[in-house]
Specification:
Oligomer: single chain
Strand content: 15-25%
Number of strands: 46
Largest sheet: 3 strands, antiparallel
Strand order of the largest sheet: 2-1-3
Radius of gyration: 69 Å
Number of helices: 10
Distance between the termini: 133 Å
Structural class: alpha+beta
Length: 669
């Protein structure tokens, strides 16, 4: 539960908030009821809540309120059903600020017909000071102005002890010249009475003045007589006397007498409240702001027509609204400036015209709408500001209603562009409305501004970077067979390119080769080698072949009676004791003992024949002996006895240990 002081502060703070936010009694009561329900739901003490609400309500009733209306203070004067009062609580004591705020917004209030019926065409201000505890305790209330038959003889009388007795008005009633209300004067007073509210009436016309003084009445009368005598216009009384003539004199009557409290205090502020019981005019009333009278002797002022205004009192004629402002109601105090997005190029305008599409008015009171500058547009009427063109679009004329997209080959990266920028060499924009240009990819190039496409590199050239403005030529030994190449390929072994910008590589001719990639020329095959039409590289001559020339496409077979020890030398003549068939790499000799040369071949000698026959005979003899010996070792013998280990059911074999025995047989020895 909150401490006691916190509880009081919470309840009082919320009730004061409701008080400030609800100027009407109905709204205040409803909000207060809802607030009480919420406090009850939170288990607040109902007795304390009601007590604090009563304090807030009493503070509300004693709050200072300015009254503005066509009549007078309804609490101190006659209740007139024809007078409408509008009470507005303003939390300030500065009267000049209150007037300034109300006059500033008066034209806006009159736009509502319901408010206009209540407050009238022009404001008149009547202020009442707030009541506080000091005043309620220190001062008595004003004397009732209603007739009192018991004191009918009480009225203001001259004291007969001063020179101001001739200015005392002894009449016992006062009829208000405007409302025709009769007031009975029943306050006993004389020239020596202090703290009074007095009535000064002209003896020649119906003009009157209500004033107050805390001094003796005769002192106020003496000051008035002195001002009239010297011709000073320091007060309304002397102004009337000087303007109307010496026959217009004023006589004074006490309307209210303030009885000071024994506790003392300031009577000045309290007598001012009682002064407001009766108001009037000593001279002709000036026309209120918003009206005029262009003739003398007018009984009423005419409200200003729509399109005209009168911002001050006493206007002879209404002034037309200047350019850039308007008034759409009668009786305007001031002309309203045209709202942003509209204009009025003539005086006396009843309404402002909205700006057409492509135009704008960014401030109030525009005489004319300005065309949208380059790079901006407005596609609706009544624009306050023009919108900037989005990236990828532009407006190269003023007053544009729409932005145009950038054409292909152009771009705009920022807002509010008046012109699109062309793509630089090496870049392109294929579509309209581009915010930026793209770099040409590898294998493509662009060599002029505003390109919508990039061109492919021709065969024999390449582009290995993005954003190229030109293609590079393939170096010697490299080629590019297709367009749009990002790099050149080296010539393979067996091919060459001897110039720049090769589209393809040329195969090496017969008898020449290129052993490395990216060859710019072909080398001739060395001696002892060759390269055919379908060969990719030079090949060494086979054994028995030779080639003594470079760059040949075949090798020569070594001829008969010659031998070729190396393929890169010429054939050598075969010796007489040797023979060399075709393709010989070396001379061939016969064995002198067993062979001898006979033409181009070796033949067997007679000695070799005898040796061979003898050797063959010896071999045959050895074979015959071996066969005969084997026959003798394997002659069959009779089996004289049967082993006991051999089964009886089986016929014994002639040979012991034949293959049908499954197990070894032991003879028993």
């Amino acid at each position: 539960m909150h401490p006691h002081y916190v509880f009081n502060n919470v309840v009082k703070g919320q009730s004061m908030r409701v008080f400030r936010l609800n100027p009407t009694e109905a709204g205040y009561e409803q909000e207060l009821m809802d607030l009480r329900t919420r406090f009850m739901e939170r288990k607040y003490n109902p007795t304390e809540v009601n007590r604090i609400f009563r304090e807030t309500n009493s503070l509300r009733t004693s709050r200072a309120h300015p009254y503005f209306s066509n009549g007078y203070n309804a609490e101190c004067t006659v209740q007139d059903s024809r007078v409408h009062l509008l009470k507005v609580p303003l939390f300030t004591s500065d009267i000049s600020v209150i007037k300034e705020v109300i006059l500033k917004h008066w034209g806006t209030l009159l736009l509502d017909e319901n408010i206009r019926e209540i407050v009238g065409d022009t404001p008149r201000f009547l202020f009442k000071n707030k009541r506080n505890l000091k005043r309620m305790l220190c001062y008595q209330s004003c004397t009732n102005t209603e007739p009192d038959n018991t004191q009918i003889d009480n009225h203001t009388k001259p004291c007969n002890r001063c020179n101001q007795y001739e200015y005392i008005d002894t009449r016992r009633n006062f009829i208000h010249p405007f409302t025709k209300q009769e007031f009975i004067i029943n306050v006993p007073a004389d020239c020596q009475t202090e703290h009074v509210v007095y009535l000064a009436r002209c003896t020649a016309c119906e003009a009157f003045y209500i004033g107050k003084t805390n001094r003796k009445l005769r002192e106020r009368i003496r000051e008035h007589a002195f001002d009239v005598r010297i011709g000073s216009e320091s007060s309304a009384l002397t102004k009337h006397n000087i303007k109307s003539g010496p026959t217009h004199k004023f006589k004074f009557t006490v309307l209210q007498k303030i009885n000071p409290s024994i506790r003392g205090g300031d009577l000045e502020s309290y007598t001012e409240e009682c002064e407001l019981s009766v108001t009037g005019s000593l001279v002709c009333s000036p026309c209120r702001p918003g009206s005029h009278a262009n003739e003398t002797g007018s009984r009423a002022c005419s409200p200003c027509a729509a399109g005209y205004n009168a911002s001050y009192e006493g206007a002879l004629s209404c002034e037309p609204c200047p350019q850039g402002s308007f008034s759409n109601v009668t009786g305007s105090l001031v002309c309203s400036p045209c709202w942003p997005g509209s204009h009025a190029n003539e005086t006396g305008s009843r309404a402002c015209s909205p700006c057409a599409a492509g135009y704008n008015a960014s401030s109030e009171g525009a005489l004319s709408c300005e065309p949208c500058p380059q790079g901006t547009f407005s596609n609706v009427t009544g624009s306050l500001v023009c919108s900037a063109c989005q990236p990828g679009s532009h407006a190269n004329e003023t007053g544009s209603r729409a932005c145009s997209p950038c054409a292909a080959g152009f771009s705009v990266p920022h807002q509010g562009a008046a012109l699109c920028e062309p793509c630089h060499p090496g870049s392109f924009s294929p579509h309209s409305g581009a915010t930026s240009c793209d770099f040409c990819p590898k294998g493509l190039f662009s060599n002029h501004i505003g390109s919508s496409t990039c061109l492919p590199c021709k065969p024999g050239s390449f582009s290995d970077e993005t954003g190229s403005i030109a293609c590079k030529q393939c170096a010697a030994g490299f080629f590019a067979s297709e367009q749009g190449a990002s790099s050149c390929e080296p010539c393979l072994p067996g091919f060459f390119c001897s110039t720049y910008s090769c589209i393809y590589c040329t195969p090496c001719p017969s008898g020449a080769e290129a052993v490395r990639q990216a060859s710019t020329y072909c080398e001739l095959c060395h001696r002892g080698s060759y390269k055919g039409l379908n060969d990719s590289a030079c090949r060494n001559c086979n054994a028995g072949d030779y080639q003594t020339w470079r760059g040949q496409d075949n090798c020569i077979k070594c001829p008969q009676e010659y031998y070729c020890p190396s393929p890169d030398v010429s054939p050598v003549l075969c010796p007489e004791d040797a023979f060399c068939p075709p393709g010989s790499t070396a001379p061939q000799y016969c064995m002198e003992t067993f062979f001898h040369k006979s033409g181009n071949k070796c033949v067997v000698s007679p000695l070799t024949v005898v040796l061979l026959v003898t050797f063959a005979a010896l071999i045959i003899l050895v074979i015959v002996c071996l066969v005969q010996k084997r026959r003798q070792n394997y002659t069959p013998r009779e089996v004289t006895s049967q082993s006991q280990l051999i089964p009886r059911s089986r016929t014994p074999d002639r040979q012991y240990g034949s293959t049908w025995h499954a197990e070894p047989v032991y003879a028993g020895w």
